Amino acid sequence: MAEQTSTANAWPANPADLIPAGRKRLGWGLLAAATLGLLAIIVVQILYKTEMSTVGFDTWRPVVYAYILWGAALGAWQVLTRGEDGQRALFLLPALLFTIAMVIFPTLFGFYIALTDWNLSSFTGRRFNGLDNFWQMLADPYYRNALLNMVLYVLAVLVEYVIAFGLALLLNAQIKARKFFRVVFLLPLMLSPVAVSWMVGKSLMEYRFGPAATLARHLGWDNPAFFSDPITARISIMMLDAWTFIPFMMIMLLAGLQAMSREVLEAARVDGATAWQTFWQVTFPLMLPVSVTAVILRIIFKLKLADIIITLTSGGPGGATDSVSSFIYREYRDRSNVGYGTMLAMAYLIIIVVFVTWLLKVASRFVRNVN
Amino acid sequence: MSVQTTDYTVSEIRSPAAFIASRVFIYGALVFWAFVCLFPIYWTITTSFKSAVDVTQGHLIPFVDFTPDWKGWRSLGLSPDSISQTSTVRDEFLKRFMNSVITSVGASALAIIIGSLAAYGLVRYRYKFAWFRNEDISFFFLSQLILPPVVLALPFLVLYREVALLDTRIGLVLLYTLMVLPIVIWIMRDQFNSIPVELEEAALVDGLSIWGAFFRIVMPIALPGMVAAFILAMVLCWNEYFFAALLTSTDAKTIPVMVASQTGSQGINWWSMAALATAAIAPLAIIGIALERYLIMGMTAGSVK
């Protein structure tokens, strides 16, 4: 299954033929027994659940235990039959088995659910309906709207990036109390977005008495309703989300600034460049790789945006602030529509996999071209 | 993070007036942003000491605008005068709090253990599983980062019901582990890469097995990285809302879910809401201030070469 050679080649791996045949047989026997046990439990369970036999367990939990035991047997088999190479494989196996069990299986299962008509609140149960959910999705204006919102939310990352870069430059300037400011600027990232969006969105930005609304009135906005018309509501959500995540980009950019060599900047200054020129012609190009990493990571996080919207606006007014995640959340929570909701989620997964792959390609080409 | 300064903006400027102007601008911007960061926190904390009138009139400064009162904390059963009495709200709160602690610590610990092992293996050895090599396996782990929670949530809802893990802390721990595993592997790969391989070679020559070398030589060196990864994972798990809202109902509900479900029938009790929010953000705020160095270390891993 696995074949490794040590990277350093400083010590030869134990040749497999040094392992006694008895030990190998033991390993194979163990693996065979565990595999048979796992398969047996699955078969028993399937027969029991489809009411073809009366022997079985109430839940599928024993199958999980059997899988864990099988994983342990797999590890033992590696060590017993392959010696030191097997011990090396043991480093990787737990994470691999865990991720495969937690991702591959549910995702495949999700694709199956996506092709069924399954409403938890109806009595008919699960029914295969082919691509019906897909056609329904194409005709769903709310889903399209949610996708469009995601485009807007992702574009907002650029504004966040500019602010984060500015803050990183500030922290990198010669200032007093740098550590204090750094901790303070970092704080929003630590705080639960749900708790903060509650306190900020529902009381600080409260229409009647919230200090933010009062301030807005003083600044000449007569009707500071942050969440009642679609555009302001979207901007409010973007601002709240930005508040949480700007520190994340800021810290990465700050690290980039601090890693920059001073000689280049000195050279630019000796050549008589102004601060403005130095920034655009030296600092910014040198920071490009870090910037791209920060922005892409931030976009990946942005694509998961849901909790603020769920707690604050529930997608309102009229679905104007919905992200895809919050829309699907309500599709499930309010309508118990598991089949259709899963179809939406799977379509979203495909869209963002394509999008992120494209983004990574473009970004790497972009960085190469500029430098 | 080293405190070195690369100051080129100031040294550029020659006249004292321009220098002062730039100072004023820099500190003005810093103070402004500090205000943006701190005011919501200040508002949350002070609101937990306000009565309804103080909230609706937008009073801001304690002792000047309004008289602080333990109102919010009393409704949670955590004020000085109610702490000795029995309180169902407090029991509920403590239960949620413990759920949050157990799930986030459990998931972070599990992710650190299996993530560090995998990262170490990927850095030090060449693997080949069928046609997958090290780069493919690394990519497989890291690509989990883009998987949005919503894709897994509904299948997990169904699967967890089948395996009786719905509304259990174990179920949440497993999901959170999955969620933070890519980040942990990312950070730990960076850590192990920076440890010279000669150390382990020496350990092997001295007769340690490869696992012995890992535990006795590599682990102690990589410990700061592990702490960094652990804290970052803690933050993400503690604040996680989506899975917790979908997959828990009574037993395993975490703090964010409790916070989000606070709309009572007669409107919102701002003071108790604020007290709850304060309690929800306090642990991480303290951790963040105390262990800021590790947090930054975790976030910048691998980004700057």
TrEMBL record, chain A:
GO terms for biological process: transmembrane transport. GO terms for cellular component: plasma membrane. It is found in: Cell membrane. InterPro entries: ABC_transporter_permease, MetI-like, MetI-like_sf. Coiled coil: none annotated. CDD domains: TM_PBP2. The chain crosses the membrane at residues 28-48, 60-80, 92-115, 150-171, 183-201, 235-257, 278-301, 338-360. It comes from the Bacteria. The keyword Transmembrane helix applies. Residues 146-361 form the ABC transmembrane type-1 domain. Keywords: Cell membrane, Membrane, Transmembrane, Transmembrane helix, Transport. It is a multi-pass membrane protein. Its main location: membrane. Belongs to the binding-protein-dependent transport system permease family. This is Sugar ABC transporter permease. It comes from Mesorhizobium atlanticum.
From TrEMBL, chain B:
It is found in: Cell membrane. SUPFAM superfamilies: MetI-like. Residues 97-291 form the ABC transmembrane type-1 domain. The chain crosses the membrane at residues 24-45, 101-125, 137-158, 170-188, 268-291. One of its GO terms (cellular component) is plasma membrane. InterPro entries: BP-dep_ABC_trans_perm (IPR050901), MetI-like (IPR000515), MetI-like_sf (IPR035906). It comes from the Bacteria. It is a multi-pass membrane protein. Its main location: membrane. CDD domains: TM_PBP2 (cd06261). GO terms for biological process: transmembrane transport. The keyword GTP-binding does not apply. The keyword Thylakoid does not apply. Keywords: Cell membrane, Membrane, Transmembrane, Transmembrane helix, Transport. This is Carbohydrate ABC transporter permease. It holds the Pfam family BPD_transp_1. Belongs to the binding-protein-dependent transport system permease family.
